[in-house]
Model the fold of this input.
Amino acid sequence: MPEWAYAVASDAGLTPRALFAVLQARLWAQRRIVFCSCAAAFVAGLVQPSGYAAPVFLCSLLGIASALAQSPGIHPHLDRGEQSAPLFGRELARAKALVPCLAAALAALIYAGAQLLRGAPDVPLTLLVAIAAVIAATLTALCATIRSGTARVFYIILAANTSAAAYALVVAGRSLLAELAFCGVVAFFALRQYGEALARYDPI
Amino acid sequence: MPLLRMRNATFASGTTFVGPVSLELSQGEHTALHCGGAQEAAIVALLATGIVKASSGCVLIDDYDPHVQSVHCKRIAGLVPHEPFLLDESEFDRYVAYRAALWGIELRRAQTHAALLRRRLSGMHESFAYPLIATLIGMPRLIVLDRPQPAYAPLIFGVVGRRGVLSTHTDASAARAFCPSGPTQLQATQA
Done:
């Protein structure tokens, strides 16, 4: 191994600066989607009666849309930069996963803000339930972005079912802890799966 | 020690098959590959930078294997894609900051380097100059150009300095512009 390589090896990895750069670049490139998501969440928060259905399903849908906006080819200059950057697949996966999760969590937060404005009860609890479901659904949908055909459809359906299962646990099962645990486990495995797939991904 | 070594490197995925490609490129050398088609040229360029992994054969970038040490390979080899960047000036400044962060380069140094390169590439259209500048600010030792414009060959060689340069082409005259001693003809691609 050449001596030069040791200097490279020591600074290899995802620094907070690189993480923030990916986040900032992708959020800026998708600012219209983020703005529309937030606007939709605000309007829904103002007109919807209190309950878990609207925040969980609407914000999950917005999260799935934000996740699919990370698909290769939509912003080719960012794709090429990330593919050729000296980062491991799992590191890049973490950075890219943060983008739709943040956009969807922001939509959930704005929905909760709108609910607060109209004086709805249990807003913090609704926000907690919604954010957990949204993050799990968004991370599952991310796995669809680097797949095509049936596999892509499968992951999108899986993402929709994730939010449905989270809703069922909290409403029918009346267990907030079970919903949080379910969403945590799904999010962990979805992010892991996305990282593994991104590491093996060939942009052909 | 060669900067890039490809030995019977092939890429196969579905109906796509490229190769075998064999070449050696050292620091300061320029090699042009004449490929059979645009997709083949793009895949060879991606193979040479370690972004795409060879299905069979061997690709070594400064003796690092992209299958195992992809991060090291990406530090050494920089890809200049064929597709022009459709960015305006303000967006490009933001893009330089983004690339500098991904490569762990001090922002001010990257901005100064980009400004210098823009002056030296003033005769080149921004859409083609931006990808080259974005690659060069990462300080790669090997530059891989995917189907570059032959008209810009003198300008490109003016800024790459002592780096090794591999370019892929679909046109023989374009390949000659990047390697006057004669481009290497890639073997026929099997379907």
Remarks:
- The domain at 4-185 of chain B is CATH 3.40.50.300 (Rossmann fold).
- Helices of chain B lie at 38-49, 70-76, 89-103, 107-120, 126-136, 153-160, 172-178.
